[in-house]
Amino acid sequence: MLTLLQSCGSTHLIKGRIEGDDLVIPVQDFEIKRGEEVRYKKYLVIEQEILQYPICVYRFSDLEYSALWMRCTHQGTELQVFGDKLQCPAHGSEFDARGGVQNGPADRLLRTFPVNVQNGLIKISLKAIG
Fold this sequence. Notes:
Elements: E1 3-6, E2 12-15, E3 17-19, E4 22-26, E5 31-34, E6 37-40, E7 43-47, E8 55-59, E9 65-69, E10 80-82, E11 85-87, E12 94-96, E13 101-103, E14 112-113, E15 115-118, E16 121-125
Parallel strand pairs: 2-7
Antiparallel strand pairs: 1-2, 3-4, 4-16, 5-6, 7-8, 8-9, 9-14, 10-11, 11-12, 12-13, 15-16
């Protein structure tokens, strides 16, 4: 995988690959290795040509991730990631790392995608995207 943007541990933008109905990235893309020490990024932002908006994937543990479509449920503006929250630059709506509304005017959860981790890969199901 190609890491497109990597600046001092802030936003990590990568390109995912499509396999069947899944968007796939290696679990290893979350790793930050310094010598023997391995730490993990909180999130990655994944872009893919077939998607109208990127998907933000948050890591909670080795097997627990959330995948959120970065489209505000208020008026459809692309969201920005700030640590544990996603924010809408248009009207200020904020969402938590699981897609819950923290601050309006948005009043609906973000679109989430099922995530499956197997054989060192994170597979995000895109079956019902549209």
